Amino acid sequence: MDELSSEEIGSHMKKLRKKAKLSQEDVAGKMGHAPQQYSKWETGKQAIRAAKLLQFYDIMELDLRFYSKNDDSVLFERLGIKEE
């Protein structure tokens, strides 16, 4: 299975954030990070860790299992990140 790049993950995050009508600052604050850090994830300049991606999906009120057909390992493998 092909992995998603940091840029592809960030693009997905951006689409979800905009759909929720939230700013980067809004999401960053909810995640407990500076907007600059969140921007690095969304632009793909820095890879996001699995725990932070889970937190992001929680903020977006999305069930990550929906995207992974009830198997987180499938999604994490596709995203190219390791669970911690």
Helical residue percent band: 55-70%
Specify the biggest β-sheet: none
* CATH fourth-tier homologous superfamily: lambda repressor-like DNA-binding domains
Kindly estimate the percentage of residues that lie in beta strands according to DSSP: under 5%
Number of helices: 6
What's the CATH topology name? 434 Repressor (Amino-terminal Domain)
Residue windows where pLDDT falls under 50 for at least 5 positions: none
State the separation between the terminal residues, measured CA to CA: 21 Å
Based on CA inertia axes, which overall geometry fits?
globular
Tell how many strands the DSSP assignment holds.
Answer: 0
Integer-rounded radius of gyration: 12 Å
CATH class: Mainly Alpha
